[in-house]
């Protein structure tokens, strides 16, 4: 338990540092535009869970043909992200479904195909697999196979993903790579409250089906100023959240705060790191990563999912294709191990700050 | 003539339906009860579910459905839809279709979505622990009855103490079986040790019955080196090959089709054993439930599906889970014999599973058992169920319908149990539990190598390489890693 608390404490300090550093770095173009448009601008300190909740309120408010549903969402959801929605928008638009993920996604596809915005919640990303067929064979191919007569672009699937310190095999997984192998859907993962709100609204309103993975470790831990108004952040645009010249680091979601810490420590050793939040995993923003690697000559990718077949492999291959002659060291990957997600061994499994820091150093000194 | 006959039957049918509906209304006006209000009211306002303690539905079931209960005593099925389906063999207008003759009728009729009356619930002990009159049960031995009662108490106490340990932060998670002790223990008692169990997660009583020790439970929850799962899974994910109890897996309903495969193996090996698999009411909504029932019927597999219908799947009430008359009714659609039993009546559960086992093995076919019970505890230590269900509903099931108290009364009435034995049992179990927790907590964690073993039978080169790199990292940054995991 003591070790569990220690781990928790580390995350806590990470989130505070994140609050300071990432919030200032994430002013996307869209936000700026809208800030100019909007006369009086208010923002509140929110955690990631409340930011998601705000986005859902806005989505339901701005489009009467939008629906939120999933297991246990009526009373607020097991993570409380859907709190207050049923009370506000009624049981016809925000409702519990039977315990059946394939049903949830299939239902969402049908709803979306009829011109609605279907916002489906899968209780944990670990439980998305019963819906795999509906996502991969149906949602992803709905438009293509009908010659664009039909589409289910109004579908957004939200699912909490990633480690929490005590989740074991089935409350910890990061299954994003499976879905990145599927043309026809988008995969988006936010890193912070402000990002979560703007990206989720974009996903909901995007004319393509999207799988939106929420870093559940940050639901309560990450707190930052979130504009109260309705704003959207662009999909398929990566963001340089820290500029540097010696090495490029690419990540997404909760892992970014760990990478940020590694960058800070590396700086003490005189290594200047550039950190990129990919945000949208497919279709991904190769250009931003390429531009950065052309500048630094080195690349490190980090994710919680097992290293083999992870999305880091795709990024690595693409950048080697484009920047082969510019690279000064092999692309480094600091990722989860090729094991099921373990309980007691979680601290060993994780791509920790020091693993990243070691990899930064060995890549720079290659 | 034939046409007139059909019509008159149709009219009778509609009349019956109307009257049946009125009948239910009348019953409702004099009392409401948990399960009845679900069937008759579409509004799911929580107050309509607050049960009337004095007028328990079960006692009315027993008088209203005496006839049906009697029919259940035989192992023959009760054909719920018989009255509706044509049975005139003289009808020459029939279609020969695979599966048997299908009669033609010229009048369009939809099969009703429900029967006039709900499927009755088999029970032997009333709420007061009195044997229902004229229930001719085979005598259950004192030894078995006392063991059942003791294990129910042990399960209850283990839940209390482990739950408390979680609250104190000593274990990371816990799930109680409170309210479902009878379903757990009595079903286990009715099985043989060779019967293979594929659990959901709220059935630790089955393991307890089979001899899993309190130390073994504690070791799993603490994820120490004595945990058979080697510290890899969350607490309560028990498993024991020795006790024929497949390891718990969190994804809901996945065990059900697997149970059918396991049962098919027993069938091929001509074993005198069956497979028993458990599922919650929520779990019956998963595709795997339906796949499993259909496979079981088609493969004629000796498997017993025990559904613990405890009213809730986390915050989702059964009225939001299905609109059928519970689970038992689903069996018929798949061609499976089914029965509904009072899950809080240990004696009835015991008898039911004994009979189910007998049929499953001797006739080599599946059985579906729906046990009506209630999840008295929160879903888990991550849940606060007062957010979504009324406190008096919980209180009612905890007190008036308490399965352990009910069974105790019966055992006591038989002169098999006394206050003295009760207090001795409780203090001894308490001591054992506290001891088990203390030892489990102090026992070191599994060694690091267990992170990499068992992914495959042998670690492939990628894992060997990753282990080597990890050990180097640990040497460089020992402060990053918990000190209680031996390297
Ligand atoms: C495939 C899958 N989806 C969702 C969950 C999350 N979950 C865990 S338990 C549960 C409710 C199960 O209810 P029920 O089957 O009635 O069993 P009970 O908890 O009442 O014993 C849910 C939704 C899960 N474990 N697996
Ligand atoms: Mg349940």
From TrEMBL, chain A:
Its EC number is 1.2.4.4. Keywords: Oxidoreductase. Its cofactor is thiamine diphosphate. Residues 46-221 form the Transketolase-like pyrimidine-binding domain. It is an enzyme of class 1 (oxidoreductase). Coiled coil: none annotated. This is 3-methyl-2-oxobutanoate dehydrogenase (2-methylpropanoyl-transferring). It comes from Hevea brasiliensis (Para rubber tree). The lineage of its organism: Eukaryota, Viridiplantae, Streptophyta, Embryophyta, Tracheophyta.
UniProtKB/TrEMBL annotation, chain B:
It comes from the Eukaryota. Signal peptide: none annotated. Residues 459-487 are annotated as: Disordered. Coiled coil: none annotated. CDD domains: TPP_E1_PDC_ADC_BCADC. Residues 151-446 form the Dehydrogenase E1 component domain. Pfam families: E1_dh. InterPro entries: Alpha-ketoacid_DH_E1_comp, DH_E1, THDP-binding. Keywords: Oxidoreductase. Residues 464-479 have a biased composition (Basic and acidic residues). This is Dehydrogenase E1 component domain-containing protein. It comes from Hevea brasiliensis. The lineage of its organism: Eukaryota, Viridiplantae, Streptophyta, Embryophyta, Tracheophyta.
């Amino acid at each position: 338990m003591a070790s569990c608390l220690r781990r928790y404490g580390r995350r806590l300090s990470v989130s505070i540092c994140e609050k300071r550093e990432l919030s200032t770095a994430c002013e996307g173009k869209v936000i700026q535009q809208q800030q100019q448009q909007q006369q009086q601008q208010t923002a509140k300190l929110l955690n990631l869970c409340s930011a998601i909740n705000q986005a859902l309120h806005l989505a339901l408010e701005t489009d009467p043909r939008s629906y939120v549903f999933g297991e246990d969402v009526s009373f607020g959801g097991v993570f409380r992200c859907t709190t207050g929605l049923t009370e506000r928008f009624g049981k016809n638009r925000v409702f519990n479904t039977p315990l059946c993920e394939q049903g949830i996604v299939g239902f969402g596809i049908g709803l979306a195909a009829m011109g609605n915005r279907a916002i489906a919640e899968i209780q944990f990303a670990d439980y998305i697999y019963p819906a795999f067929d509906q996502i991969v064979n149906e949602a992803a191919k709905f438009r293509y196979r009908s010659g664009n007569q039909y589409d289910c672009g109004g579908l957004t699937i939200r699912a909490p993903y990633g480690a929490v310190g005590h989740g074991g095999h089935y409350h910890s997984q990061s299954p994003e790579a499976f879905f990145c192998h599927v043309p026809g859907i988008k995969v988006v993962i936010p890193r912070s409250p402000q990002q979560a709100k703007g990206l989720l609204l974009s996903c909901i309103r995007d004319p393509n089906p999207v799988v939106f993975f929420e870093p559940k470790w940050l639901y309560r831990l990450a707190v930052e100023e979130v504009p109260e108004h309705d704003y959207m952040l662009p999909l398929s645009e990566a963001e340089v959240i820290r500029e540097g010249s010696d090495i490029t680091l690419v990540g997404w979601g909760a892992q970014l705060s760990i990478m940020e810490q590694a960058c800070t420590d590396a700086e003490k050793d005189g290594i200047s790191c550039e950190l990129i939040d990919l945000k949208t995993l497919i279709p991904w923003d190769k250009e931003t990563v390429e531009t950065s690697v052309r500048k630094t000559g080195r690349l490190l990718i980090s994710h919680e999912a097992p290293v083999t077949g992870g999305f880091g492999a795709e990024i690595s291959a693409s950048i080697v294709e484009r920047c082969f002659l510019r690279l000064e060291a092999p692309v480094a990957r600091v990722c989860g191990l090729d094991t099921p997600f373990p309980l007691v061994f979680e601290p060993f499994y994780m791509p920790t700050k020091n693993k990243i820091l070691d990899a930064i150093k060995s890549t720079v000194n290659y | 003539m034939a046409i007139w006959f059909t019509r008159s039957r149709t009219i009778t049918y509609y009349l019956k339906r109307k009257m049946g509906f009125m009948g239910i209304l009348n019953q409702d006006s004099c009392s409401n009860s948990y399960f009845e209000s679900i069937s008759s009211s579409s509004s799911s306002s929580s107050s309509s579910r607050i049960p009337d303690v004095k007028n328990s539905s079960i006692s009315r079931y027993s008088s209203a459905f005496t006839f049906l209960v009697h029919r259940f005593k035989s192992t023959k099925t009760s054909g719920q839809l018989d009255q509706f389906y044509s049975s005139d063999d003289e009808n020459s207008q029939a279609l020969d279709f695979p599966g048997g003759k299908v009669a033609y009728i010229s009048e369009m009729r939809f099969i009703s979505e429900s029967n006039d009356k709900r499927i009755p619930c088999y029970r032997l002990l009333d709420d007061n622990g009195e044997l229902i009159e004229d229930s001719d049960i085979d005598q259950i031995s004192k030894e078995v009855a006392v063991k059942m009662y003791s294990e129910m108490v042990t399960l209850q106490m283990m839940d209390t103490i482990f739950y408390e340990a979680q609250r104190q932060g000593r274990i990371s998670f816990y799930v109680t079986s409170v309210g479902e002790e009878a379903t757990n223990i009595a079903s286990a008692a009715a099985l043989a040790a060779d019967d293979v169990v594929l659990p959901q997660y709220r059935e630790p009583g089955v393991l307890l019955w089979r001899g899993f020790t309190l130390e073994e439970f504690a070791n799993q929850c603490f994820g120490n080196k004595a945990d058979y799962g080697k510290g890899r899974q969350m607490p309560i994910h028990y498993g024991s090959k020795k006790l024929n109890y497949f390891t718990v897996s969190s994804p809901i309903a996945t065990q059900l089709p697997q149970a059918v495969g396991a049962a098919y193996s027993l069938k091929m090996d001509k074993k005198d054993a069956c497979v028993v698999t458990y599922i919650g009411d929520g779990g019956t909504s998963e595709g795997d439930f339906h796949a499993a029932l259909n496979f079981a019927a088609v493969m004629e597999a000796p498997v017993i599906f025990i559904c613990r219908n405890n009213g809730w799947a986390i915050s989702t009430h059964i009225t939001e889970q299905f609109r059928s008359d519970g689970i038992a009714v689903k069996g018929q659609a798949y061609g499976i014999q089914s029965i509904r039993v009072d899950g809080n009546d240990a004696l009835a559960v015991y008898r039911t599973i004994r009979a189910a086992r007998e049929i499953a093995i001797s006739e080599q076919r599946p059985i579906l058992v729906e046990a009506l019970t209630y999840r008295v505890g929160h879903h888990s230590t991550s849940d606060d169920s007062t957010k979504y269900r009324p406190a008096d509903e919980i209180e009612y099931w905890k007190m008036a319908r308490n399965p352990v108290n009910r069974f105790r009364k019966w055992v006591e009435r038989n002169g098999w149990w006394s206050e003295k034995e009760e207090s001795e049992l409780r203090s001894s179990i308490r001591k054992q539990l506290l001891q088990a927790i203390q030892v489990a907590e102090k026992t070191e964690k599994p060694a690091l190598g267990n992170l990499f073993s068992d992914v495959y039978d042998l670690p492939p080169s990628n894992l060997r390489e990753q282990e080597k790199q990890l050990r180097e990292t640990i040497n460089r940054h020992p402060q990053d890693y918990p000190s209680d995991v031996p390297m």
